[in-house]
Design a protein that fits this description.
The protein has about 350 residues and is mostly helical. The chain has 17 helices and no strands. Among the domains are: about 60 residues; about 140 residues, Tetratricopeptide repeat domain (Serine Threonine Protein Phosphatase 5, Tetratricopeptide repeat), CATH 1.25.40. It holds the Pfam family TPR_8.
Length: about 350
């Protein structure tokens, strides 16, 4: 009897080992399959990763799993609120000799920290990624590293550094032969020149981006038209400014984008002292769901009424302006009204470049 029970226990133990090994082998196969899927079907890749039991993975496979899960979350535009996954990959691959996997790991560590608004840490990771990727043939990864670095420097008002990174990004986009990536890099370069106050150079790079962009991409084209219109307004070429913004509007943008385009058009009329037209468009932009847009619009409406001599109406708009400004400060403590609009548009393009 005792021999029989022992025999059964041995069978069960062996069966358990076989099942465990089978599960681990299947998980490893799933991980390899996921790597191939991520480029073409990131949603399917994420579903596959979620079916894997991390507990059956070896240390090395678990590190790769954490990296792939981070990549899958990014490609599916799922918000990242913790660096716990990517930290596992960083810790494991940091001591390995494979520069390719280290470059990729540090890139995603940078992306996660950028998403979490840990700017300094994100920059450090991206710069490490650039070092490990140097000389590699993975031009897409190098493009993304420099593109995201440029975006970080831009948001920190470090425009010279942003220009340097954007030009590197453009170099790799050319090596890739990817026109969309070229357009994004050129646009970022234009934004950086604008930040430096070099509006003419900014217009040059916007024009290059527009020439390269497929006209079928109406969303990006509308954004470029609107922004180049804003730059023409900066150098007081109001006729060209209005022409470009009208081109943007003619492409039937979404209501959210349309409010932003109306803001620029209102600014152009305001800058050229065409106050009736400016008033008309600011009256539209006060309906924007973006509080920053509301605040700036009410302030401009107040200024226009003051110029017209309608002091009572000017004070009414000022009161509304102050009320909405307080709401913004409670929510974000931000007073960078127009720049916030610019960063918002820039961020949309960054996301569209697809990590």
């Amino acid at each position: 009897m005792k021999n029989f029970i022992l025999h059964i226990n041995l069978i069960l133990l062996f069966a358990g080992i076989v099942v465990s090994c089978s599960n681990e082998q299947q998980s490893i196969l799933d991980i390899k399959h996921t790597e191939k899927l991520l480029e073409t079907r990131p949603d399917s890749a994420l579903k596959l990763l979620k079916q894997i039991d991390p507990k059956v993975l070896s240390t090395s496979e678990y590190a790769r799993y954490c990296l792939l899960m981070t990549e899958a979350l990014g490609k599916n535009q799922i918000p990242i609120t913790s660096d716990s996954l990517i930290s596992v990959a960083v810790e494991y691959f940091n001591d390995k000799s494979d520069k390719d996997i280290k470059a990729k790991t540090y890139f995603y560590a940078g992306w996660v920290n950028q998403e979490m608004q840990n700017t300094k840490q994100a920059m450090e990771y991206f710069l490490k990624a650039a070092d490990f990727a140097e000389g590699d043939k993975d031009y897409k990864l190098q493009y993304l590293i420099y593109f995201y670095l440029g975006d970080l420097y831009f948001q920190e008002n470090l425009y010279d550094s942003a220009l340097k990174m954007n030009k590197q990004a453009f170099k790799f986009s050319k090596l890739l032969g990817n026109k969309n990536y070229m357009v994004y890099a050129l646009r970022s370069t234009a934004l950086a020149y604008s930040g430096k106050g070099q509006k003419d150079s900014s217009i040059v790079y916007y024009s290059k981006a527009i020439d390269l962009l497929p006209k079928s991409d109406s969303v990006t084209l509308a954004t470029l038209y609107n922004e180049i219109g804003d730059r023409y307004n900066d150098i007081k070429k109001f006729k060209q400014a209005i022409q470009y913004v009208d081109k943007a509007i003619s492409l039937n943008p979404s209501s959210e984008e349309l409010h932003y385009f109306y803001v620029v058009k209102a600014h152009i009329y305001y800058s050229s002292a065409q106050y009736d037209s400016a008033y008309y468009y600011y009256s539209k932009t006060v309906e924007s769901p973006n509080l920053n847009t509301k605040v700036d619009s009410y302030l401009k409406l107040s200024n226009i009424e003051r110029k017209r001599g309608n002091l009572k109406k000017a004070f009414e708009y000022t009161d509304i302006f102050l009320h909405n400004k307080d709401l913004i400060e409670e929510q974000s403590h931000s007073e960078m009204i127009i720049k916030m609009q610019n960063i918002y548009q820039h961020k949309k393009t960054v996301e569209k470049s697809s990590i």
